[in-house]
UniProtKB/TrEMBL annotation:
This is DNA-binding protein. Keywords: Coiled coil, Cytoplasm, DNA-binding. One of its GO terms (cellular component) is protein-DNA complex. Residues 10-37 form a coiled coil.
Length: 107
């Protein structure tokens, strides 16, 4: 099936490209389904379940960040601290602009 690309106008060429991309996606999806079926057959033939091999979806856990100890303290107001993560607090930026060094603000 040879297509004479030089005979196509701009709109026809764009339509051909779109159809080709859609077909490419369809083939990819078909291949994924076939592969998934093969994998499930292999798992069953060995006497295991999908969950035995890959675990259950419910087990997927998200890592949560714990609390981090403060690393810097505001010399003007010791109650204000910063862990060194995220956006710099205003007092930290102002202290640096006034000539202090990060090392001076460490706890």
């Amino acid at each position: 099936m040879a297509i004479d690309l030089k005979a196509l106008n701009h709109n026809q060429l764009n339509e051909l490209i779109t159809k080709a991309q859609e077909r490419q996606q369809e083939l990819r999806k078909e291949k994924v389904v076939t592969l998934r079926e093969k994998i499930l057959e292999m798992i069953k033939s060995e006497g295991f379940s999908f969950e035995d091999i890959f675990g259950s979806k419910a087990k997927a856990t998200r890592r949560t960040g714990g609390t981090v100890a403060p690393k810097y303290r505001n010399p003007a107001n010791p109650e204000q601290t910063w862990t060194g993560r995220g956006k710099r607090p205003r007092w930290f930026t102002e202290a640096l602009q006034s000539g202090k060094k990060e090392k001076d603000l460490e706890i």
